[in-house]
Amino acid sequence: MTRPTFVRAxxxxxxxxxxxxILEAARRLALESGVRNVTLGGVATxxxxxxxxxxRYFGTREEIYLELLSEAGRDWHDAVVQRLGAPTPPGDxxxxxxxxxxxxxxxxxxxGQLSQHLEHNVSLTAARAFKETALxxxxxxxxxxxxxxxxxxxxxxxxxxxxxxxxxxxxxxASHPSPAIAELYQQEPHLLAALCPPFLxxxxxxxxxxxxxxxxxxxxxx
Length: 222
Hints:
Mean pLDDT: 92
DNA-binding region: 39-58
Number of strands: 0
Organism: Nonomuraea indica
InterPro entries: Homeodomain-like_sf, HTH-type_TetR-like_transc_reg, HTH_TetR, TetR_C_34
CATH topology of the largest domain: Tetracycline Repressor, domain 2
Pfam families: TetR_C_34, TetR_N
Domain HTH tetR-type: 16-76
Largest sheet: none
């Protein structure tokens, strides 16, 4: 693959070009080998820059992936809102949430890495920008879900979308085990069946249970 040719980044458009190239290299490497296996040095090599130059645009590897997670979150938000824009039976809302997540493996991988890795080794500025974006997107998703699923309040719909994202991250991590666990599952299929549930049907079933159960808890203290 031909690496991009950069001029010295004096002008804003040149700086933006480098930022986009860094993000694209990190995205490609994550899709090829998984987020947890990508290093800052690997991103620098892929984009054709010294590691010290990459750090000028993103302080750490984790900040690169927080930015990609925000981008992926916006993409998920837009896809859900678009699909819920047409008349949608309440039961289909859960299917929309689950299917749009299953269609975005990098997003799910990033969600699975978020709490344990990507929220560490980041600046306060990067953390604040990410959390504010996450709040904006989940609030917007909650409103869209509540409109399509009138049995849920907006707060319940926001909670459902939060849980959809968290569950997707956990399920994606479980369904993409380490090489040692993958080899074990090949040797012991009964362990695979019991401990590595299929992503989409498991997520859909869990979200259906949550959507049905949340209204029953309204009168109980949080």
